[in-house]
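Write out the 3D structure for:
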Amino acid sequence: QVQLVESGGGLVQTGGSLRLSCAASGLTFGTYAMGWYRQAPGKERELVTTISSVGSTYYADSVQGRFTISRDNAKNTVFLLMNALKPEDTAVYYCNARRSFVGGQYDYWGQGTQVTVSS
């Protein structure tokens, strides 16, 4: 079955950096768009960034210029490099794999990894 396993979360001070990884298995990784979402306590899950199967990227305004998404199709892994972290970046970060087909889409989620930015 499909598995997405995130790692790399932790506690960091304001202005610090973290690199999240998401290792995928059970799917044809190169055909999926990959994304990172986050959910802070008491808030809805929000889109952070995506990377298409051909490498096109999108960033939410709140992380533009600070976060970088990348993928290694040979290793079935997507990365999120987070620089200049702020306390408002504190959230559980979720990896997502998505592929559309006529009439629907495949949509898979990881279990999440906690990122805490201290002020």
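The radius of gyration is 14 Å.
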